[in-house]
Amino acid sequence: MKKAEKEENPELIVKGKLADNERLKGDSNFLRGTIADDLQDKLSGGFRGDNFQLIRFHGMYAQDDRDIRPDLVARKLEPRKNVMLRCRLPGGIIKPAQWLGIDEFATENSDYQSIRITNRQTFQFHGVLKENIKPMHKWLNHLGLDSIATAGDVNRNVLCSSNPVESQLHREAYDWAAKLSEHLLPRTRAYAEIWLDGEKQHSTEDDYKDEEPILGRSYLPRKFKTTVIIPPHNDVDIHANDMNFVAVANKTGKALAGFNVVLGGGLSFVHGTRSTYPTTAHDFGYIPVEKLLDCAVAVVTLQRDWGNRVDRKNAKTRYTIERVGLEVFKAEVESRMSHKFEPTRPYELTERGDRIGWIQGEEGLHHLTLFIENGRLIGKKKKGVAEIARVHKGDFRLTANQNLIIAGVAKEDKRGIEKIARDYGLISETTQQRQRAMACVSMPTCPLAMAEAERYLPEFIDHIETMLEKHGIGDNYLVTRIAGCPNGCGRAMLAELGLVGKALGRYNMYIGGNRAGTRVPKQLLENATTAEILDKTDELIGRWSKEGNPDEEFGDFVIRAGIVKEVKQAATDFWD
Amino acid sequence: MSDSPFDPPIPSELTVKLSTLTQEQQAFLAGYLWSESQRRANAATSLNGVSPMAAQKRRITVISASASGNAAGVAKKLVGRLEAESLEVNLVSAGSYKARQLPKEDIVIIATSTQGDGEPPEEGVPLHSYLFGKRAPKLDGLSFAVVALGDSSYPQFCQCGIDFDTKLGELGGTRLLDRVEADVDYQAVTDAWIEKTVAKLTEVAGGNSIALAEQAEEVAVTSAFNKENPFNATLLDSIPLVTEDTGRIVNHVEIDLDGSGLRYQVGDSLGVLTSNAAEVVDEVLELNGLSGDEKIEARQGAINIRHALTFQTDLNQLTPKFISDYASTANSTNLSALVGKKEKLASYQAWTPVIGLMRDYPQELDAQRLFNGLKPLTPRLYSIASSQEEVGEEVHLCVARVDIEHDKKTHSGSASGLLCSRLEEGDEIEVFVEPNPRFRLPQNNDTPIIMIGPGTGIAPFRAFMQQRRAENAQGKNWLFFGNRYFRGDFLYHGDWIEYRDQGLLHEFSLAWSRDGEEKIYVQDKIRENARQFWEWLQKGAHIYVCGDASRMAKDVEKAILDVIKKQGKKDEDDAVEYLNELREANRYQRDVY
Fold first, then answer.
1. Which of B239, B398, B497, B510 to mutate to test the interface with A (most CBs of A within 10 A)?
2. Which of A18, A148, A557, B441 has the fewest CB atoms found within 10 Å of its own CB?
3. Contact B243 A72 (CB under 8 A)
């Protein structure tokens, strides 16, 4: 069936010399490579050759401390090589006992001794030395956690709106997120084999037990991101994701009827490469709840088969849709899931931020959302969360805004938990401006980082807060995000004001996104110093305070005022 | 130019011509003339070889066992003098001397230095262990004399010379002359000994003999610069190699030899002329109530004490002699008590710099007494860490700064302090090449090598790798390295990763003494890899050991013997014999200090 279509439409598959990553995946014997040998290699603290990339499929990135790299290299030493580990935590839910376990590991066995909550609702360890990697995986396994496929060309950690208020609906949505995560995982036994001393497979014959019915032997052409979202709250930033399932409740409002399927978002681009651009996702239509897994498999396998394996820069789902056309893509998804999309049910996305502080859910339990700047828990604050974990009877939810929810607190436990949170500085007065801001990790650990992000954000927000005060709009905010490179992790391409690193101390400045996260911003300054950026920001906030309409968002204002053009069709508008 | 062979002096036409040449041309010319003179000397020797023999011809063999080249220099000088007296003399380095020849010898003169804690220098080990082993020969027919070089700051002063002298006597040899022991400033003592020896040998072995000087193994000298006439080189760089948290200073030092014509081979050492830091000299002067302008009598005549303290005295290393002399007038019961207790004195001496003693027990010495008591400052030798195939006119060293903590102050070694801390890029430093023919890569590039060099002992192996890379040598390379920590303390870690990734480094065994609960050393790694080690030996591997002589080299040797015993199924004696055979075959070479 599909075969015939492909022959009729040869452009569905990009021809040419495959990207080297395709060889790497194909040769990897289901993601094993020679990782096990590298673990035994005592000459280097790092991973060699293909293994450098292959460990990503196991949830780790090979990194080094870039702050000290020049000094070490000058001393003819090896950079301080380590890995960053990203846990798999669908929907961001983690139990207090598990939290205590990860807290212990981070404190004792990672260079930065921190737990970094990420905007993909999971946590990262930074700076784990090679000798600690295997013990780390065993420890996670012991805690009931793993890091399979949280990076690499696979379906990564599945997001789910952090909505503890509508408990029933959220529970259902969360269950689907967890099911999606499990269903789309690689089937290879490499992870258990390498990290957990799982049964080692010996002969090549055994390799055939490794099958990848969904992902395929060469896995996906590129990373793939999935969310389950309960509108109108867009905390998961659906336009940053390949595949989104927007929950539609039944008439009672308490249970799921189905999902609107929204495909083809993504934010990464390459500086100066016009064939790359951030894109918002497209509405494909509605499916009933029971078709969710079929639909997901249809989309993933379609992207597997049609995605661009020649040029990695154009390999994501959004480029596939762009290339073959939305209707062709849609028809193929329908064919693969043996079901037709129904028209999209109306839904609205209004905002993205978390509601910091206590809220009460529909089942009477209380939830405390703690604002964690940059998601970085370290020192006193990390200790505070561990103290809470020791007494907390509910669970923790890591949000897509890098915050932490102490969820499911009984009324009588509220005071105790709040006291700990206050004692450890986890509750403090912060502005909307700061709460809505976000940055990726960047320096000193991320090898892609071109400029500071996480370490610059607090200072940058200080300046913006001062400007807002100065212009008499101190309680207003603009969604501000900084990314160290254009790869997209900081989701700066869905900010009202986004900075994307070019070089240390220099950024491209983008404005004109909106609060709901449904519009890509447009470049205003290129390769600007922070001083130039601050000057420009001050000027724009000044104009916004005077010329803006009541309740007009910063991003809407700058477009209305003609300061930048609105990005409607990213493929053309983003660069021109 | 007191040693000048020109009498009357060099004709002025020649010196005028020479002065028009560049430094490099002069250097080349010097080498050319030297080799020309050798050629002529050889021709003369072969002619003499067929000349009628003297009636009372006795064969003299001069054996030098040298670590830094001093003993070899003494032996060479002696041979020159003996040749001048037309005696038949054979000069041989202990390293290339077959110990079992000894019973067949007639007259043997040994010039030896002593290493570390009373041990023979590397090349003297086979001879030493032969004489002290079970298979020691009877030497009734042998006449001998020994000159012993040493360093009185070590407790077992001249022990190796004492060993040879005593043992040769015990084994039945006839002592021609009493043993002479010379300290670091040996020249005067050895010169006197040479004259006495020449007189004695002329008497017992005289007659119309021929001289047969052994050709130097390597004719590599092409430069006008040497130990007596060091080259004023430029420091290119001195960069730290270990991270600060290791608490140590180890530097990679790059020196520019451009214009010197100096050539070195991998395995050679670089001699560095050193001096004391101005603030240390100032403090010594102050502690002794001296202005610095006081004149003293030194070998080259009257000089001021500041100059003498800066360039001619060792202000780091005390000697027992200096301490006891100092104690005699210090008026301190504590110090006198210390001098009386050998072990305490040794430990005090080891951990106290000169100014430490003076601060601890203040008194004012007059300038001459101060100068006379102190140990002469001698050039320091560093194993070269580069190959000219890769670095051209540069020479690289790996220098650990030797720091002594005394009175909560750090006192750095004069040369290591100079190279690691005091010199700035572009500063000048006097150097010479000290050949080390006993530490050479195998002739055959296909021969595997095992390199054992913990700490700064890794230096020559970096040179080996550069050389083997340049020559595209196919022989396998195995490194044993150890230090305290894997991270931050792995000397040239980046280079070694590169060698491995380029397929040049085939095996590596690393020992980190502070990384785990157990302290692991290179010798543990040798035992751990016994089978493979033995296999490499069966494939003809050469073993190289570089670094600390007092402990590491011994522990490593024990481990190698264990490997030979276990894997080769040999008893202790056979294992020792096996190792000595390796040594004699140049397959076990050490550069230890």
1. B497
2. A18
3. yes
Options A116, A223, A304, A491, the catalytic residue: A223
Residue in A71, A77, A129 closest to B494 by CB: A77
What type of residue sits at position B525?
Answer: K
In degrees rounded to 5, what are phi and psi of residue B249? Answer: -115, 115
Is there a contact between B501 and A78 if contact means CB atoms under 8 Å apart?
no
Is residue A295 annotated as part of the catalytic site, yes or no?
no
Q: What is the DSSP letter of A431?
A: -
Positive or negative: CA dihedral A160, A161, A164, A169 = negative
- A225 classed as catalytic: yes
Distance from CA of B276 to the nearest CA of A (A): 27
* Dist. CA B205–CA B197, nearest whole Å: 11
3-state secondary structure of A178: helix
Taking the C-alpha atoms of residue A172 and residue A408, their distance in angstroms, rounded to an integer, is 16
* pLDDT tens per residue across span A335-364: 999 999 999 999 999 999 999 999 999 889
Q: How far is B519 from chain A (nearest CA, A)?
A: 16
CB-CB under 8 Å, B239 with A75: yes
Q: What is the pTM of this model?
A: 0.83
Element (H, E) at A404: strand A404-409
Give contacts of B 230-269 with A, CB under 8 A: 239-243, 252
Whether A42 and chain B come into contact, CB under 8 Å, resolves to yes
Q: Phi then psi for B201, rounded to 5 degrees? A: -70, -35
Residue A249 phi, psi (nearest 5): -80, 160
Query: Of A479, A477, A486, A420, nearest to A453 (Cα)?
Result: A486
Question: Closest Cα to residue B545, out of B488, B486, B593, B474?
Answer: B593
Distance CA B391, CA B394 (A): 5
DSSP A425: T
3-state SS class at B115? strand
CA atoms within 13 A on the CB side of B442: 23
CA angle at residue B388 from B382 to B393, to 5 degrees?
Answer: 90
- A156 carries an active-site annotation: yes
Dihedral sign for Cα A526, A530, A535, A538, please.
Answer: positive
A40 touches chain B (CB under 8 A): no
Catalytic residue among A87, A160, A295, A446: A446
Q: How far apart are CA A476 and CA A533, in angstroms?
A: 20
**Tally of CA atoms within 13 A in the half-sphere of A78 that contains its CB:** 21
Residue A298 per-residue DSSP state: H
Q: Strand locations in A170-319, DSSP E? A: 226-229, 243-249, 256-263, 282-288
pLDDT (tens, 9 = 90+) of chain B, 593 residues, equals 444 545 555 555 555 555 566 665 555 555 555 545 544 444 433 333 333 333 456 889 999 998 878 899 999 999 988 888 888 888 888 877 877 788 888 999 999 998 877 888 888 888 888 888 877 888 988 999 999 998 887 778 899 999 999 999 999 999 999 999 998 888 889 999 998 898 888 888 875 433 333 334 454 455 789 998 999 999 999 999 999 999 999 999 999 999 999 999 999 999 999 999 999 999 999 999 999 999 999 988 999 999 999 999 999 999 988 999 999 999 999 999 999 898 899 899 989 999 999 999 999 999 999 999 999 999 999 999 999 999 999 999 999 999 998 888 899 999 999 999 999 999 999 999 999 999 999 999 999 999 999 999 999 999 999 999 999 999 999 999 999 999 999 999 999 999 999 999 999 999 999 998 999 999 999 999 999 999 999 999 999 999 999 899 999 999 999 999 999 999 999 999 999 999 999 999 999 99
**Which residues does residue A266 pair with via DSSP β-bridges, in sequence order?**
A279
Chain A residue with minimum CA distance to B507: A43
Query: In B, which residues are within 8 Å of A71 by CB distance?
Result: 243
